[in-house]
Amino acid sequence: MLNEREIESCYLGQFIPLQYHHNMLMDQNRMHGFKSAIDYAVKPGAKVLELGGGTGVLSWFAAAKASKVYCIEFNPDMVQEARRFLALNPNGEKVEVIHADAFEYLPPEPVDVVICEMIHVGMLREKQVEVIESFKRRYAERFDGPLPIFLPEAVIMAVQPLQQEYDFEGFHAPIVQFQDTAGIYPGTVELASPSVYSIIDFNQPNELIYAWQGKFVVDRNGEVNAMRFVTKNILAVVQDRSTTIDWLNPYMTVPLATPVQAREGDVLQVSFQYRAGGSIASLQASLRAEVLYEAVLQPYRAPAFA
């Protein structure tokens, strides 16, 4: 019998089948970003912990410099696959793949870097924030010392009003969509600039509830029928170059239950609330938009002729 957490993990996508990990391995932006950030953050001889190791690839990146890597994975099938893959690669012997729950596991010794990539757009579905906050409390109690470096270091989340096409060969279906950030989508019209609604710094304590109400000035006439959620992961802050190593999740477009007609210059108010790691449906149920102030139309003036 599955316990409550295992049931929730299956429902929210924690037990991701191996074939879907292939997509993550094929994502060059994700792979290159994490490899660069890990290479920067992990110093020679460091001790590293990865929470939610999947195929073990991020632990393997760390093993290039680390003296020891603890790779924690909850899915027993992925534990076996990670061990198999690491055995095929140099430095794989430095990675110990451990079948354990990231909410409960603590390493047998202090570590220098913690890698955790349980990331979904908006910090939904997966347990990134809750796992790290739980880990920080337990780690401080056990080792009574400074916390390790976390990778990602921070997350910036933003939201943007859209007019989104939902007709599929004549079939109207307002559904949640995911879009590549580099793609061009003729059916997507941006009606205002994005607005940041939360910044997560994993070196600081973080709340698990995101409740936001904000205003947008509409850029063009249209029907606000969806909101785009943007999640930018700051994988590492490169202080000596005053830059960051980033990874941008695909855009997530969530349809509004009640679309709103808006004109250029209108002030649109948007609100929502959800819990980190919660379902997309919970966000969608709370998502609201309304025109707070209508644009003042200027009276027509005939041009003056000399």
TrEMBL record:
Keywords assigned by UniProt, alphabetized: Methyltransferase, Transferase
UniProt keyword annotation of Plastid present: no
Any single biological process term in GO: methylation
Domain called Methyltransferase: residue spans: 48-137
One Pfam family in the UniProt entry: Methyltransf_25
Keyword Methyltransferase: yes
InterPro entries listed in its UniProt record: Arg_MeTrfase, Methyltransf_25, SAM-dependent_MTases_sf
A GO molecular function held by the record: histone methyltransferase activity
Protein name: Methyltransferase domain-containing protein
Species, as recorded: Duganella guangzhouensis
